[in-house]
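Structure in, sequence out. Go:
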């Protein structure tokens, strides 16, 4: 089993923040329940610290944000989630303040911003896989929202693309809040049923 320090060594690791934007986890969120879970759990501040620490260490930072065009062309309409988001005004209009990062989560000139007009996660159908490979990344650390949908989606997509994946338990949030523990302990992990659970971050892509 790989050593965690080796797994996330700066030379081959990227942190992907998933929809850590004002329109999703900020005060004006189109998903207020998700925003409240992110604030109450401390996720936003934890992600901010992780991004700052990772950047100083030389880890690549990719901020992935969901956007839409004013005419909604290219957006999905084939699920209740998409229709509800459209009624509430999100994902957010490209170029608006609602696509900026929320709270203390910083963006530096060295960071990469990735956007999508469609879908549920930051990897499939986006430019993220090509960016990661061009950067020489083999391990991704996935943080953000929500643990109900986008986070497991991102984990499975990354694992299928042969990346090692680390999901910090305190760097993701969802609704209800306890679902985050359920998804980490029971679904998106390499935990073997019947084996003792480890308190550290899970590594879904590891053998």
């Amino acid at each position: 089993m790989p050593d965690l320090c080796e797994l996330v060594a700066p030379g081959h690791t990227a942190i992907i923040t998933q929809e850590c934007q004002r329109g999703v986890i900020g005060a004006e969120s189109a998903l207020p329940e998700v925003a409240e879970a992110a604030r109450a759990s401390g996720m936003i501040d934890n992600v901010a610290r992780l991004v700052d620490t990772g950047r100083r260490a030389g880890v690549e930072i990719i901020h992935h944000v969901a956007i839409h065009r004013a005419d909604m062309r290219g957006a999905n309409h084939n699920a209740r989630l998409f229709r509800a988001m459209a009624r509430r005004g999100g994902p957010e209009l490209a170029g608006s303040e609602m696509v900026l990062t929320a709270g203390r989560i910083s963006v530096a000139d060295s960071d990469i911003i990735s956007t999508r007009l469609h879908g549920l996660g930051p990897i499939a159908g986006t430019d993220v896989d090509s960016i990661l490979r061009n950067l020489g990344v083999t391990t991704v650390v996935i943080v953000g929202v929500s643990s109900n949908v986008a986070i497991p989606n991102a984990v499975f997509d990354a694992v299928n693309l042969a990346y090692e994946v680390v999901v910090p338990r305190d760097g993701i949030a969802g609704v209800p809040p306890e679902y985050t523990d359920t998804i980490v302990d029971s679904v998106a992990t390499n935990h073997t049923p019947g084996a003792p659970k480890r308190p550290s971050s899970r590594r879904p892509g590891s053998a």
